[in-house]
Structure formats: structure tokens, C-alpha cells
Amino acid sequence: MIPWLKRVFPWLGNVFEAVHNVLSGLWVTLRTWFKTYDPQRKTFTEHFEYPELPVPVSARYRGFHRFDLTTCISCDQCAKACPVDCIYIGKEKVEGGKGFKITGYAIDYSKCMFCALCVEPCPVDCIFMGATHDLSCYSRDGTIVDFSRLPLDVAWGRATLNPTAVAQAKVITEPVHGGPNQ
Q: CA–CA separation, 152 vs 72, rounded Å?
């Protein structure tokens, strides 16, 4: 009978240790919940009145890009620096001169990881990170933003990127440069 007790008690000790560890973890969770529980606490939308008033963001927040279409020289440096290849630049050779004319500048925000690596190599500082944190849409098509089709204030970096402007930019049926075969 003694060898049987030696086999059962270590197992029973392991069970008691496991139950003790689980109860200790639950106690830490409950203690933290009681410290942070506030019945008068408002929801996020009540506290910040979102979307009517913008949510305060820190000064170094990397939100959706702001792009100045007028200063871009189509050098492709931002697209080359992007680690996830989410920047698509359409350009045409300028007739009677040197350089390129930008015909399309699209960013696929379903791929973008907001690393800001595209901002640094730009020689004319036409792309920079904005403070916009929300670009809500109901389909993945809304996550692809073509800055060349946006209203001028948004495309030139004077206004922030918003879902309404992106949706209105998608309504345009003719492509900016006539398509790749023309």
C-alpha cells in the first residue's frame, strides 16, 4: 500500500499546484479589474464625440499619408523604399522636355504598415505622414486611395484624407491617363 501512496500523492500535489496557479492568475485579473472599473466611465464615442470631433493624437502619430501632388516629380523613391510594395505610381514622359508627369499615385492601405519609410527618401518632401487615424469603408476597394483622383485640397495636402473624399474619387469612371493600352 505504501508504493501506491507514493504514486498518488505526487500526482495530487501537481493537481493542487495547478489549481493554485490558476487561482493566483484569476486573482491578479480580478484585482486589476476592480482597480480599473468605473461605473461612470463613458464609452469612446461619448468621450471624444467621434466622428464629429477628431480624436486627439500625439505629435509623432503616423496616420494616413498626406501627399502634395503639385510637387511630386515621379522619382519612384517612395515606392522603392516601401517594404510591402503598397505604393503604385503612374507616370508619363513629358513631351518636349525632361522628366515625368505624374498620372496616378495610389496607396493600398490594406497592405500599408505605416512605417513611414516612404517619407524619408522623397527629395521634394511631397509625401508625409498625417494625423488622420480613420479611413472606414465597407469593402477592400475603399482601402486603395488614388491621390491623383482626389479633390484638389486633399490631393495637394491642404486637407486631411477622409472616407467621403475617397468615395467621391472612386465615382470617376475615366482613368487619369487613359489606361495602359492607350
A: 14
